[in-house]
TrEMBL record:
Family annotation (Pfam families): adh_short
Family as reported in the entry's similarity comment: Belongs to the short-chain dehydrogenases/reductases (SDR) family.
Superkingdom, natural source: Bacteria
UniProt name for this protein: Short-chain dehydrogenase/reductase SDR
Gene3D superfamilies in the cross-refs: NAD(P)-binding Rossmann-like Domain
PANTHER family, per the entry: 3-OXOACYL-(ACYL-CARRIER-PROTEIN) REDUCTASE (PTHR42879), NADPH-DEPENDENT REDUCTASE BACG (PTHR42879:SF6)
Matching SUPFAM superfamilies: NAD(P)-binding Rossmann-fold domains
Length: 268
């Protein structure tokens, strides 16, 4: 299926590895020109090199902290590089993605811990939307995909910081997405289940350390709890993200797409 994205521009956050990289890869394969952002320069440069070798879309790497204003300014300015400094340069697609806050017991979290989580996993995404959405409206096309968490639908006690911040972003999106929809702009959230990434391994390790058990037992237990008896692959996640950004997904808006193999037991 041709997703109709040839020549579009995208900003993909947290794209040096894992699910962010998978989203960038799927978009670039469709001919999207992308600015990829992450904090670690070496891994990001390697990711950009690999993506540019695909030979479809052009990729520019910006090593920056997207949760900081200075990082956002640098990432957003790179849109002009993709469009040779055109006056109307802007992103047609924005994929927000930031590593989740640490797991733990809510009794141990300070106000500073909460503010940091809110900034990274809620406010930074809102700021990126604020900076790009009017340009999308003016061009008559825009796709914003926020990579959030299954915690939005099935909160875990040891991920309380993530529960709070990501649910806050979800509530914000529910309102603004309906405001911009008449202009060809959609905003949706993509909720990853158990995908085989370094982040998942870190979460397993946190639980193993808390409970004093081998991490392999945590991993095996989680795998068996999955409806598919396996973890998802980053490539599957990237493909879903690319479709949500496509011209075919214009009627998909203000939704929380849970990609977990059917493991979540609820009806809604």
């Amino acid at each position: 299926m041709d997703l109709g994205l040839q020549g579009k521009t995208a900003l993909v956050c947290g794209a040096s590895r894992g699910l962010g990289y998978a989203c960038a890869s799927a978009l670039v394969a469709e001919g999207v020109d992308a600015v990829i952002v992450a904090r670690e320069p070496r891994a990001l440069d390697q990711a950009a090199h690999t993506l540019n070798e695909q030979g479809a879309g052009r990729v520019i790497a910006v090593a920056a902290d997207i949760a900081a204003e200075e990082g956002r300014v640098r990432a957003l300015a790179a849109a002009r590089e993709l469009r040779d400094a055109a006056a109307d340069a802007g992103f047609d697609i924005v994929v927000t993605n930031a590593g989740g806050p640490p797991a733990g017991n809510f009794r141990d979290w300070s106000t500073e811990d909460w503010m940091r989580a809110l900034n990274v996993n809620m406010l930074s995404a809102i700021e990126l939307m604020r900076a790009t959405i009017d340009g999308m409206i003016a061009r008559g096309f825009g796709r914003i995909v926020n990579i959030t968490s299954t915690a939005v639908k099935a909160p875990s006690s040891y991920l309380g910081l993530s529960n709070g911040a990501r649910c806050g972003l979800t509530g914000f999106v529910a309102g603004v997405a309906r405001e911009v929809a008449p202009h060809g702009v959609t905003i949706n959230n993509l909720l990853p289940g158990t995908f085989d990434t370094a982040r998942l391994a870190a979460n397993f390790q946190a639980v193993a350390d808390r409970d004093g058990v081998p991490v392999e037992s945590i991993r095996d237990k989680r795998r068996e709890a999955s409806a598919t008896r396996r973890f998802g692959t980053p490539e599957e996640f990237g493909a879903m993200c690319a479709f949500m950004c496509s011209v075919h997904a214009g009627y998909l808006n203000a939704q929380n797409i849970l990609l977990d193999g059917g493991t979540y037991p609820g009806t809604f």
